[in-house]
From TrEMBL:
<dbReference type="Pfam" id="PF12937">
    <property type="entry name" value="F-box-like"/>
</dbReference>
<keyword id="KW-0833">Ubl conjugation pathway</keyword>
<dbReference type="InterPro" id="IPR032675">
    <property type="entry name" value="LRR_dom_sf"/>
</dbReference>
<dbReference type="InterPro" id="IPR001810">
    <property type="entry name" value="F-box_dom"/>
</dbReference>
<dbReference type="GO" id="GO:0005737">
    <property type="term" value="C:cytoplasm"/>
</dbReference>
<dbReference type="InterPro" id="IPR036047">
    <property type="entry name" value="F-box-like_dom_sf"/>
</dbReference>
<protein>
    <submittedName>
        <fullName>FXL22 protein</fullName>
    </submittedName>
</protein>
<dbReference type="InterPro" id="IPR050648">
    <property type="entry name" value="F-box_LRR-repeat"/>
</dbReference>
<dbReference type="InterPro" id="IPR006553">
    <property type="entry name" value="Leu-rich_rpt_Cys-con_subtyp"/>
</dbReference>
<feature type="domain" description="F-box">
    <location>
        <begin position="9"/>
        <end position="48"/>
    </location>
</feature>
Amino acid sequence: MHITQLNRECLLHLFSFLDKNSRKNLAKTCHKLLEVFQDPLLWSLLNFRSPVELKKDNFLLGPALKYLSICWYSERVKVCNIEDWMKNSFQKDFCNRHENTVNDFLLDVCNRCPNLLSLTLSGCGHVTDDCILQVLKNCPNLKSLKLENCVRITDHTLEAVTLHGGSLRTLHVDFCRNVTQAGLDRVRQKCPSVMLSAERSANMIPDSKPEKKLMLEKASRKLVQL
């Protein structure tokens, strides 16, 4: 029996066990399998392991998307999360190439995936408060927001949660070093039904002020000259 002789329900079930690349490759073999690949029912969950994967054409974004995860577990995460003054030219170039990748993708999600229920971001050092604000505004059914090691996230995201996270039930801001205890307390006060996790966040050393960064950079240059 040839695979194309299976009914659509069986084909969808078969596709559900494949990764994104395998789905795309199988869809190239015939028109019937391409139609299965394009079925919204196949794309209720998306997992990405690096920003590079976001630029591929092996998946579909649409109203059927319910669960989205972008987790970048790599030594490169540490590079992108350190202050600019500590990076060499190679590291800066690497980070610049991914500067807007995740933010642009999430803005696309805002426009095309209004039924999103869960968003998990880990190691996405370039994600901004404004981007998370747009997600909260455009995905009103969002129940779970998990942010880990997203260093640009601040109390502005926590404030956005209190204003636009009416459906939110789970909020994680673990290892987000620019989140303060005051911001966490505000969420607990205004959103008592939200399960809040902030492991190490308020206890970590926040980013230095611009003036202090400049002083540290000058001191570093002097040490190099010596």
